Amino acid sequence: MITRLSPARRGGIVTALGTSLTISYASSYYIPAVLAVPMARELELSPIWVFGAFSMALVVAAIIGPWAGARIDGVGGRGVLMLSNLVFAAGLVVLAIAPSPMVLFAGWGIIGLGMGIGLYEAGFATLTGIYGKDARAPITGITLIAGFASTVGWPLSGLMLATWGWREACIGWALIHLLLALPLNACLPKGTETPAMRAAPVQDGPPPSPMAFALLSFVFAATLFNAAAMAAHLPGLLQAAGASAAMAIAAGALIGPAQVAARVLEFGLLRRFHPLVSARAAAAAHPVAAVTLLSFGGPAAYVFAGLHGAGNGIMTIAKGTLPLALFGAAGYGQRIGWLNAPARILQAAAPLVFGAALTLWGLHAIWLTAGIGLLTTGALFLLRRS
Predict the structure, then answer these.
(1) pTM here?
(2) Does residue 371 share a domain with residue 272?
(3) Range 168-186 average pLDDT
(4) How many domains does the chain contain in total?
(5) 331 and 185 part of one domain
């Protein structure tokens, strides 16, 4: 059983899974920012079509997520995660050879399948199958590693683009999946070696109430909407507040370190508390940041980015730990798939919706995400510890 393995072996599991998830995020979520424009230029499209194809991939991921979670509940996560590497590689190869927009959309559709079975939700479910109710620390561990996906992904995509071209960059990421991520996932425990959660005749906690399930689903959807909106429009928002272009870019660069620093805090001090405690504080961080930006304008750009990044970093962990703490480990994979399905769809719409708000209202568009953050905080206070 996994609980009898050495600390080195447990650390190896977290390192392997965290590294493979870094590759999965870097080669899916983070390639449009670098490759969308050259893709569109060669295929004689507006870049909006490439981003539209990426949004379609998010919807595909939302649809496939519950199935992937149920599969992990039944047989463990190793096989599902290894399959995701093959699917990612196939989608990237289709992108690389795409002669037309139709094939480009097909490639992104395949990548959406990989996202549905190979990102955080699948990783969280895999760790819950291995560690059961003690999965909180490993979940935090893989987010600490995969939190550097953009730090690794953007420069590497840019280097391959500058050296070879966007098609060759896609081939490069496909090879990284096959030569690095796939062997790392193959090192994970087999399904037969994980605790037999699926064999439990009853849940290891009270059945989740429909109200609690709905509240948590709203929390995940709302926080992912805000995260996607800020990821797409943060520089423009900060400039609307009076920050210079250089200051806006520098402030945006703080988000990644702030996320990682907050996750370190969660791994150390905050893990002594129930996940609801850290989730409530994290949800409140964005509204506080918004009020600060509205009150002080451009000079508060760094404070805004730091608070938003820290809250977003902890909420990423909460998406794995809250369902575990509130509903138990039995059936975790399928449950987290359903909880995150609305979030994926809202994430696809967020850049367009907030972009329109920013165009219409300027800086006051921040009231939209601040209001969503306040509703999220209220929903978390309505939830009670199991």
Answers:
(1) 0.83
(2) yes
(3) 96
(4) 2
(5) no
